[in-house]
Amino acid sequence: MIVLGVDLSCPVIQILIALALVAGLTVVSLLKFYAYISCGYYRGKVRMNGKTVIITGPTGGLGKETAREIAKKGARVILACRNVESGNRTKDELIESTKNENIVVRKLDVSSLKSVREFAQEINRTEQRLDVLIHNAGTAEKSIKMTEDGLETTMATNHFGPFLLTHLLIDLLKRSGPSRVVVVASELYRLCSLNVNQLNPERSWFPLWIYYISKYANIYFTNELAKRLEGTNVTANCLHPGMIDSGIWRNVPVPLNWPLQLIIKGFFKTPAQACHTSVYLACAEEVEGVSGKYFMDCKERGLSSGAMDMNKAKKLWELSEQYVHLKSQDPKI
Ligand SMILES: *[C@@H]1O[C@H](CO)[C@@H](O)[C@H](O)[C@H]1NC(C)=O
Ligand SMILES: *[C@@H]1O[C@H](CO)[C@@H](O)[C@H](O)[C@H]1NC(C)=O
Ligand SMILES: *[C@@H]1O[C@H](CO)[C@@H](O)[C@H](O)[C@H]1NC(C)=O
């Protein structure tokens, strides 16, 4: 058989291919081992019985694994889901695997300001306390779509919705202190910069880019939130979960996809590995009282100087208040 001008029936070629495969597997195993010892997994044994945790976007990937780890620790876990049916299935699966029955499903479409208000009202009405709010839900839309509120969908889901939700739950968080807000951002914020005058883009030559911008916004939001919460018992931190092997790379065609697979299998995390930093920030004693920081692999990391620009963070905050139509009777942070 001849492939790309190479005769595959030649024994020398066969041996070379076999060697290449063995070398590839060895590299992957070594990388995996390196990742295992260096990835900053959280193995703390702290229990969360009596605590209540809300997690958005909990029905798949990172969110589901985060919810699972927190349920294992005994917390009451509120799964805030856009799709209640899939939330119900997740709940059953988590109860089965963690034996924690204290898991509830609540409807939340974080891209809709109305849904955020309804969700917050229900939580405020039905929950005695809230110890941790994990902003995990995120989307990367391939085209520009505006929500019913006139907000671009990726920004609405990843930034504006969480911004409003935090306001509406802040009193409950304060009453339950010490409590925590955890924001899933991404190291990929470094690929872009954030123009605070374009928080709600109506057109873009590359809509996927808005995802990175929203992750930048997550960092500004966290920094400004932490600053405004100084002197309270509520902390706010953000994190990079790691690059995740989530299957979105599966569509790359075959010869190209081999080196890519090597990188993905070697370097990328599974959702179960990637949830460690979220879980760490939600419960670890080491970060009690720590606020306004950025974490990766369960360790504090530096931000670019642009991301630490507190003037821009403040501006983002003030403009966001307008975009989400914060009302005078809403709590101010
Ligand atoms: C989800 O579960 C709740 C409680 O068991 C049930 O009342 C509700 O009808 C379920 N919703 C869907 C869409 O499956
Ligand atoms: C939460 O409920 C309290 C009363 O129990 C009320 O004063 C407050 O305005 C409510 N907050 C929100 C955001 O609904
Ligand atoms: C923070 O929490 C601690 C422990 O519950 C409490 O003693 C303290 O008064 C709280 N501080 C504020 C500012 O709420």
Automatic annotation (TrEMBL):
It holds the Pfam family adh_short. One of its GO terms (molecular function) is oxidoreductase activity. Keywords: Membrane, Oxidoreductase, Transmembrane, Transmembrane helix. Gene3D superfamilies: NAD(P)-binding Rossmann-like Domain (3.40.50.720). It comes from the Eukaryota. The chain crosses the membrane at residues 12-37. This is Retinol dehydrogenase 14. The lineage of its organism: Eukaryota, Metazoa, Ecdysozoa, Arthropoda, Hexapoda.
